[in-house]
Amino acid sequence: MAYLAGVMAHPAFTVRFKSDLIRPGLHVPLTAEANLFAEAVALGREVIWLHCYGERFADPAANRPKQAPRLPKESASYIPASGGIPSAPEPLPDRLEYEAAARRLRIGKGCVENATPEMWAYEVSGKQVLWHWFSYRRRDRSRPVIGDKRPPSPLDSIQPDGWLAEYTSDLIDLLHVLGRLIALEPAQAELLTRICAGTLLSADTLRDAGAFAEPDENGGVQLSE
Asked: What is the pTM of this model?
């Protein structure tokens, strides 16, 4: 799993295999070189640690404590005293905007400083992560009903009276995670290039080695001979 995360969880993989990604199913370049495999696993462990907010692959010796990850500079996601996101009686905000020149993320009448353009643009599966995060915490959480899709649940209208302090903490944690993921991308891209230029294991090689599972007569799964 760590190998997959190290090799595939970054924009360079999508760019390199854009045409292949049109078809369902992901194709993974599997290196036959042990040193490259080990490098990918090391990167992937950090990627998964970040995605899990420190809950998995924690390793203090590798600077991965079991806690919410932090960028090297703690000022990376700083809320100024004059721009903190106001809570009740101020209603939940409906606006999330990015001021690129000031590197400021504005949430309603508050803001977060030092959010980079890369953080703002960060996407997973075509979804802008920061906006997607905010969409579950803004005042109007309704979404258009498309086709025969069921109408929104009345439970969606149950909300806090105002912005919660935990929302701000969650946002800061998210920005730290995005910043560290972005910092890993050049190393992941460079490693992917070396893996693709090196010796790869083909599907036939893996099949001949018995690496693929096949269903038995009872519908269960067993390793092929």
From this structure: 0.85
